[in-house]
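Researcher: Can you fold this with iron/sulfur cluster in place?
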Amino acid sequence: MDEQKVTQSLRAQARELLESGRVDCVIGYEAGPRDRARPVFVYDPDQVDRLIWDDTCVHNLVTYLHDKKKAPRRGEEPPRVAIVVKPCDSRAINVLLAERQIERERLFVIGVVCEGMAGPDDGLAARCLRCGDRVPVVHDVLVGEPPDAPAVEEAYADLAAVEKMKPAKRLAFWLSQFDRCIRCYACRQVCPGCYCTTCMFERDDGLWVDAGIELGPKQVFHLGRALHLAGRCVECDECERVCPMGLPLSLLNRRIVREIEELYGHRAGRDEELTPLLFELGDEGSPI
Ligand code: SF4
Ligand code: SF4
Ligand code: SF4
């Protein structure tokens, strides 16, 4: 992939969208410290040259759409936003559309053809080794030429080692993982599907779980979060990427992804028309 060409296309697209007034903000990537991209919010056409594209654009930017749902001031409209997405990120847009968290008409989706992102070591990120998606499932404009379908690793090969363990050993494995968690909530903050105004795991009057750092509350936090994402997790692995303690959260999430697909043939965000699996929405868009 010609990253320079994609970068130039992104800048041209952003300039046009901002100059025409079609959007108020473009969410994309800019060069960050240590040769890694970082998210950027561009409001001014004169700033579009900050945008870049390379294989360090790992972040799922869809999570930032939650900050753009409300009008900045009383009497004003919420901002119209353009967002740069990879195929995995684009599935999160479909989830938020289905859950009526964002308005399609306020959104302009700049899809980028993806050939995989760099992992912490030299090769591709683990999620990219398993991924054959090259074109975002939702986009208003597509940047880049779709390549041939790649050879991918078996989707759940890494789960097999955990599933082979006897139940007691598997429980000990997961408890030892949960025990390392420092409850920093980075995994929750980065997740496009975690957007409750008040997280039930952070309430000091929680009915089932308190905000403690003991193993019990941490176990409930992890199992609860995984279940809250059942049928909604888009397998972007952002939670695992940002975890400072290196918890293998993707093993937990993808165990449920596989279960939901086997039971209901549902894979979150694959289709713009896909309704939420585990709840219905009332007329006002709130769950019933
Ligand atoms: S998981 Fe797929 S779509 Fe997402 S960055 Fe990796 S290769 Fe691209
Ligand atoms: S990011 Fe890691 S350490 Fe922080 S709450 Fe999540 S699992 Fe725990
Ligand atoms: S749970 Fe993790 S992998 Fe799933 S959508 Fe949220 S951040 Fe992405």
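Model: Folded with iron/sulfur cluster in place. The two ends are 45 Å apart (CA to CA).
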